[in-house]
Amino acid sequence: MITAEVILASGGGNPLIPNVWEILVTGVAFAVLLFVVTKFIAPTFEKSYTDRVEAIEGGIEKAEAAQNEANALLEQYRAQLMEARTEANGIRESARAEGAQILADLKEKAAEESARITAQAHGQIESERVAAIASLHAEVGTLATQLAGKIVGEALEDDARSNRVVERFLADLENQQNAGVSN
């Protein structure tokens, strides 16, 4: 077994104090390692870190820009939707007004047609009344002449005389009718 006395006897010094050459080699190796890490490895890590930070920040900026664009499109969509609703309401009101105008025009045309038909019917009735009166004048005149001839006992074939008798008879009838209507 190796004891502390064997180590001291072998010419070594204090085991707690390292050898100067070992310190020097370790220091140089550490300096070389530190140089390699600071010159090559640390910048690579720093570049990766910077790239990652920029990518994350760029992604956040892109996400914010996309969000802003989406909000702008949403507002534009809402404005278009409101405009379309307003336009639809205007069209609906216009259609209602146009329908009311068409209905009023149709009512007016129907009233005019009704008035025209009524006037035509009155005209036809009046012409038929005049024709009936003329027909009655002729028949009444003939009947009155025949009746007067039977009453008088002689034939009243003189046209002028029979016309005067018929005219007087009809005038008396009209006077009696007018007097009866005014009472």
UniProtKB/TrEMBL annotation:
Keywords: ATP synthesis, Cell membrane, CF(0), Coiled coil, Hydrogen ion transport, Ion transport, Membrane, Transmembrane, Transmembrane helix, Transport
Membrane topology summary: Single-pass membrane protein
Gene3D superfamilies: F1F0 ATP synthase subunit B, membrane domain
Alphabetized SUPFAM superfamilies for the sequence: F1F0 ATP synthase subunit B, membrane domain
Presence of the UniProt keyword Transcription regulation in the record: no
Assembly and interaction partners: F-type ATPases have 2 components, F(1) - the catalytic core - and F(0) - the membrane proton channel. F(1) has five subunits: alpha(3), beta(3), gamma(1), delta(1), epsilon(1). F(0) has three main subunits: a(1), b(2) and c(10-14). The alpha and beta chains form an alternating ring which encloses part of the gamma chain. F(1) is attached to F(0) by a central stalk formed by the gamma and epsilon chains, while a peripheral stalk is formed by the delta and b chains.
NCBIfam families: ATP_synt_b (TIGR01144), PRK05759.1-3 (NF004412)
PANTHER family linked to this entry: ATP SYNTHASE SUBUNIT B (PTHR33445:SF1), ATP SYNTHASE SUBUNIT B', CHLOROPLASTIC (PTHR33445)
Stated name of the protein: ATP synthase subunit b
